[in-house]
Amino acid sequence: MGALCCNAALFDLDAQTSTIVYEYTTVLTPSQGRRSDMAAFPELYEPLQRGECFQFCSLLPHPTRGRVASLVCPIQDEQGVMGDLWLVSPSFHAYAQADIRLMQQVANHCAIALRQARLYQVAQGQVEALARLNRLKDDFLSTVSHELRTPMSSIKMATQMLEVQFEQLTPLPEDAPKRQTTQRYLRILRDECQREIDLIDDMLTLSRLDAAVEPPMLSAVHLQDWIPAIADAFVDRMQSRQRTLTVTVPLGIPSCTTDSSYLERILTELLTNACKYTPAQETVAIAATATTHHATITVSNTGSYIPAVECDRIFETFYRIPNHDPWKHGGTGLGLALVKKLTAQIGGTIVVHSDPHLTTFTLTIPLHLQSHTV
After folding, report:
1. Could you give the C-alpha distances from 256 to 29, 227, 311, 338, 344, in angstroms and in order?
2. Sign of CA dihedral 79, 83, 88, 93
3. How confident is the model at residue 372 (pLDDT cuts 50, 70, 90)?
4. What burial class does residue 218 get, using C-beta atoms within 10 Å of its C-beta: 0-12 exposed, 13-18 middle, 19+ buried?
């Protein structure tokens, strides 16, 4: 096109200024960074702000550039004009329609790039704001959990002492109804106190995992014996609720090196959830397999269904599926969040797949976890 220079400027419409932010020239004095007062050049910036593209020749020589011919095109999109694009050529040069169309296409690409960059900046700002809120939330939960731990421990101890004192009292025949009522109240107090302590412990565990202050304590876990032992603790509970529990661990499955306490907590949480949400006459199944480098443990149950859109969200802290507790078990939404974080701590992954007939949680962990890689 025979141009001597091209540059792009951005407008500050509030300050009514235009600043050259990019320039390419090999023969003219550079102007990058120059700021112009738009009000001082209404013949240029008024048509540009109306979205008009135009060309002109300077009548008087420029102090450094002399006489030149310029093609000016606004950088704009549907939301308005953001800046302009200049093409500077030798004096008395006439730009053809093909030149103007090319200039407009380049300006359109500039507008798209600018808008995307600004949207990205806004999105990044929102991400940073959400991250700050999450940090504040985590700090708040950690502080509150620590502050509640001591009084709840005192309440638990006081409840235990009340139960001991109550059992030592000599009952009178006429006190039997009152005694039963008092025992029921004490049992409710003990159970609810323990439930609050468990909640506080879960929040403290989440805080420690987020802070990564406790590296995994590695030991050998013999899955062939270890998984049935964990499942045995749930047999009576399953039978009392008319559910069937099956365990399938092949003979000769290799041992794994991992944090046994983390793995136990993961499997216990998965079995607890399965026990809670499996209807009567349905089945909960645990199975394990292994490859050269990984072990896979699945916990599945029939009779319950998790919608596909919820399969990722159930691992979020405090998230519970709306209207998905027909048995009114309640809960805090911390169990699966802990499972997710504990799984990450031992270098594993966990996913859930659900259809109307079967829901399966699949835990995959390395057979040999290296402490320095966590």
Report:
1. 70, 12, 28, 21, 16
2. positive
3. very low
4. middle
